[in-house]
Amino acid sequence: MVLAGTPQVTKSGMLARLYFDAAAKGDACFSVVQSALVDADGFQVVHTLPVEQCVTVSQPLPLTMIGTALRQGAPANPNPGAGALTCTLVTVNGTAFKTDAAGSFLVDSMALEVGVPYTIRAAYPGYLSSEKTFTIPVGTVAPFNVGITTLHGGDVNGDATINILDIGVITGKFGDTGLVVGSASADCSTLDDPADINDDGQINISDLAIAAGNWAASATAWP
Ligand SMILES: [Ca+2]
Ligand SMILES: [Ca+2]
Fold first, then answer.
1. What whole-number percentage of the chain has pLDDT above 70?
2. Residue 201's CATH number
3. Out of 15, 95, 152, 153, which could bridge 210 as a Cys pair, Cβ 3.0 to 4.6 Å?
């Protein structure tokens, strides 16, 4: 109270208020084990210590999770098909979410808990999926950031590997233009052509280069 400015006299009321954040369910009790208060001359000031306070935390903190799923080669440049990084399907233990134009997603409709194993998976037509299993550490302050993954392109037929079958589909449609692009639709409901890997609305050397560059690759690990 001296540090607060002019020395105080005959004060009453609350001296301090303590706040806490609960990191998990359970019981906790709080008490002040020592409190020293002196006046300007160094004499002890008699004051009342609070009684022990106990609480039961019945619900964990509402946790949210954020992350980013990018797609190799997208958005294209130039980009006549207007494809974006939207519409990547992200599932968390089977519950579905979608990325926005920056590839970011927010998991806010699940009762996430610390210490529970979650499997997250990102997938988009024409790309190898990416997934990992993890737990949210105790003490995490929302939002938990699950990190960034980049999907590798070229799995046109969706068999979780990139090989001559995928290259064959791309070369078979080589030169096609004006294709419908799933990630250019507002609600991601438009069926996407997986052979147009970079979602620019046309199938050309760019799509072939992405697929060939990932030759023999299989599922992408989520860092
Ligand atoms: Ca394939
Ligand atoms: Ca393309």
1. 91
2. 2.60.40.4130
3. 153
